[in-house]
User: Fold these one by one.
Assistant:
Number 1:
Amino acid sequence: MNRKLVMWAVVSAIIAGVAFSLLSPVPAIKKNVTAEELTQLQSSGAWVVDVRTNSEFVSGHIPNALNIPLDQLSQAAATWSKTQPIVVYCATGARSAQAATLLAESGFKKVYDFGGGAAAWTGAVEGGSAPTSITAGPGVVKTDGLPVFIDFASST
C-alpha cells in the first residue's frame, strides 16, 4: 500500500510541475532588435525608453525616446499598461537587458531590447551630441570620429 501511495505522489508531482510550467507566463522579450525594427516598432506605437542617466540622455538620444533611468523604471512602469509595446535601450546593452527582464517579469507582454544601445544607433539623434572631431586649429589631430587616448602621465 505504501508503494502505491508513493508512486501516486510522485506521478502527481510530475503532472503538477508540467502543468505549472505550461501555464506560467514566459517573459515576452525580443532581444537585440535592429535599428530598423526599432524604427518600425516606434512608428506602430511602441514606446522607446532610454534607461541611461539623465546626463547621458541629454548628450544625445533616439528621437522621441522617453528617459527613465534604470533605477527609476520599476516605479514608472507601475503606472503603464502591460499591453503597451516597449523598446528599451541604454549605452551598450547591459542596462537595457536588465530593464527588459524587469518589464517582462512585471507582466509586460511586448518588450523589445535594442541590445546594441546608443552605440549601435545610426539614425538621427536629438538633444545634442559631442563632436566626433575638431576640424581646424593648432594641434588638431584628425581622428575620423574615432576615440583617442592621450597619456598625460608619460615621463619625458
Number 2:
Amino acid sequence: MSKLLNNVCSELQRLPGVGRRTALRLAMHILRMDVEMADSLSSSIARFRHDIRYCQSCNNLSDEALCPICSDSRRDRSVICIVEQVGDLLSIENTGQYHGLYHVLGGVISPMQGIGPSDLKIDLLCDKLLTGEVKEVIIAISTSVEGETTMFYLMSRLKAFPDVRVTTIARGVGFGDELEYVDELTITHALLNRRPL
C-alpha cells in the first residue's frame, strides 16, 4: 500500500466506529472524488475545527456567541432540557416536539475516565437557574452507570432551586421491544415509571 494511502487510512481510523476496512473504503471514495470536492471537504473540516465555538449560554456548538436555539425568541425560556452531548440535543430537536432551551453538559461523570463534576458545565446551568426565569429542568441523559451517577449529582445540585421542577425523560421498554429480550434495569425503570392508560 502506498504511504499516502496508508497515512489517510490511519487518520480516518481515528474517527469513532471507523475500522481499517471502512477507512480504506472512505479513502478510495475520496480518491475518486473531483479534486475540488475533496478540497472542499478538507477545508470544511479545517474551518469547522478552527472556527466552531460553544454557545455561552447552553454550551451547544455555534458560529456565534449564542447558538440559534438560544437566540430564538420563540423558544420557551421557562424549560431547560439537560443533555450529555450536542448529538443528543440534535436527536431531540429532530423530533420537533420540544420547544424549550437546552443545556449541554459536555459528558457525564466517569471516574474511570477521569471526568468529574467540575469537568462538566454544571456551574453554567446553575447560573442560568439563578435568574428565576426557569420553571422546569428536564434531565435527558443516558441510563448508563455514569449517566445515573451524573443524574444523582445533578439532582443534589438542583435541590438548591426549590422553585424549579425537576423531571426526567421516560425510561423503560421501547416501542416494539419484546419483553423477554429487555434487560433487568430497563424493566425496573419501566415498572417504577408506569402510568395509567
Number 3:
Amino acid sequence: MSTPGRGLPDPGCPLCAGDGGTLLVRGGAWRVVLADDPDYPAFTRVIWSAHVAEMSDLGRAERDELVRVVLAVEEVQRALLAPDKVNLASLGNLVPHLHWHVIPRWRDDRHFPEPVWGRAAAGREAATEARRASVAALLPAYVDAIARRLG
C-alpha cells in the first residue's frame, strides 16, 4: 500500500502531466513508453502511474507487479535486440516520480561503458549511427513484442 498522502497527481510533475514518452502499453497501475532518445531508440521507461517517489512507497504486490513489468521489458530487449548488456536504473533525481529505465547497451554504442547520461566516447560516430539504424529497424517488432507480452 502506498504511503498515506502520496500517490496523488502532482501538477508540476512531467510524468503525472503526460505519458513520459511514446506510449507502448498501459496497465492498470503502470505504463511502458519509449523514451524517444535519438541515440538509443529502444530506451524504454516503465512508469508507475501514481505519483510516488520510491519503491518502498509501494506495497509488496505493487512492487512485485512493477518488477514483473521491468523484467518483461528486459527479456523482450534481450530476445529481440541481443544487446551486450541491459542497464536498469531507477534514479528519479530530476523527476521524483517512480520509474525505471530499461536500456539496451552495446559495446559500440555512443557512451559504452559509461552510463547513457555520461561522457560520450570519441571516434564512434559511424558505429553509433549504424547501431542506431539497426535498432530503429527492429523497433516495430520490439513495440509489437512489448504489446503482446504486456498488453
